[in-house]
Write a structure and sequence with these properties.
Blueprint (H helix, E strand, L loop, with lengths): L2 E3 L2 H5 L7 E4 L9 H10 L4 E4 L10 H6 L3 E6 L8 H8 L4 E4 L2 H13 L4 E3 L13 E4 L2 E6 L4 E11 L5 E2 L8 H7 E11 L17 E4 L13
Parallel strand pairs: 1-12, 2-3, 2-9, 3-4, 4-5, 9-11, 11-12
Antiparallel strand pairs: 6-8, 7-8, 9-10
Length: 228
């Protein structure tokens, strides 16, 4: 059952040291900045973070890394022009990196939410990303075995939620959010609006995958549909 809470701080207050935390977003698109920065304030550390990137600038995930709260990051695109906090900590040996091809990252997360035990993929065969993993030939092609990627907590940003926890996302902000919500023991979502009703045809993530919601930026508004 979905619980609505008043503040981002309340939403993440029980995230423990050493937790594995999935954070939605593709760069800054869909990144749950308010939840991440509340997590910084709450003091949880020694975290393993799963995200497509390794932080941008000085906010959100970048701030979590800057503050030394992240022990390991699992991502597909760790370096870019404004990833200075990850760069400095990685060069100093203060953060561990597990590099995963982007499609494999998404599929490993999806597999966890779908209850899939493992899957074979051609992506990564013959590269350092396949080292130590089972490789099998199927129909004349080599595939590497990849395992599901689960988390204790998922932090997700969505556009709107109804009274039952059903989520609507906006455009590319959808990215990793839906599969992360399904792959975590506890999914925590920040939204811009709480709307009732939402057209069932517009629901992306059903409320069964949503444990906790906080509205940031907009009050409760009525609606005849999901909108865009």
């Amino acid at each position: 059952m979905t619980t609505f809470v008043a503040t981002p701080t309340e939403a993440v207050a029980d995230v423990e040291d050493g937790a594995t935390v999935m954070i939605g977003g593709f760069g800054t698109a869909g990144q749950p900045v308010e939840l991440i920065e509340a997590l910084v304030d709450c003091g949880a550390g020694d975290l393993t973070v799963v995200n497509n990137n390794a932080g941008n600038g000085d906010r959100g995930l970048a701030l979590l890394i800057k503050e030394g709260r992240v022990r390991k990051i699992i991502c597909s695109f760790p370096r870019q022009v404004d990833s200075q906090h990850f760069d400095s900590r990685y060069r100093a040996g203060e953060i561990e990196l597990e590099l995963v091809a982007q499609g494999n990252l998404a599929e490993r997360i999806r597999a966890a939410g779908a209850g899939i035990g493992a899957f074979f993929t051609p992506t990564g065969v013959g590269t350092p990303l396949a080292e130590g993993k089972e490789v099998r030939e199927i129909d004349g092609r080599r595939y590497v075995l990849e395992l599901p990627l689960r988390a204790d907590v998922a932090l997700v940003s969505a556009y709107a939620v109804d009274d039952y926890g059903n989520l609507v996302f906006r455009k590319t902000a959808r990215n990793f959010g839906p599969i992360m919500a399904a792959a975590a023991t506890t999914s925590i979502v920040q939204v811009r609006e709480r709307r009732t009703p939402i057209d069932p045809e517009h629901v992306v993530t059903p409320g069964i995958y949503v444990d906790r919601v906080v509205v940031v930026g907009h009050p409760l508004v009525p609606s005849v549909g999901a909108g865009q």
